[in-house]
Design a protein that fits this description.
Layout lengths: L7 E6 L5 E7 L2 H9 L15 E7 L4 E13 L11 E14 L3
Antiparallel strand pairs: 1-2, 1-3, 3-4, 4-5
């Protein structure tokens, strides 16, 4: 379901039907990128980052968006604000498809 501000909520599906976290975004990809930045296994570079499957169920629908996701740590830019840490986590995702769940 779409909120007033145009964002949609996506529940991260882990083993089975366990939905542990909710990410919001205008698109499923935006929510998948947020989920990917929170992966436990973060690589030293994009090329070395391990790929993981991320499954996001769009709230209010039966759609499950499936992404291949990976994340890595990188030095923050030189012109970073004071509050930003020296190392930041970056992520990327690749859409694998959509499944429809039957309830």
């Amino acid at each position: 379901m779409v909120r007033e501000d145009g964002k949609r909520n996506f529940a991260l599906r882990e083993s089975g039907d366990d939905e542990s976290s909710v990410f919001s975004g205008n698109t499923p990809r935006q929510a998948a990128l947020k989920a990917a930045r929170r992966l436990d296994d973060v690589g030293d570079s994009e090329a070395e980052a391990e790929r993981h499957d991320v499954r996001l169920r769009e709230k209010g629908t039966d759609k499950v968006h499936i992404y291949e996701a990976w994340a890595w740590e990188e030095d923050a830019p030189d012109d970073k604000p004071d509050w930003m840490p020296d190392e930041i986590t970056k992520a990327n995702v690749s859409k694998e498809g959509i499944e429809h769940i039957e309830e």
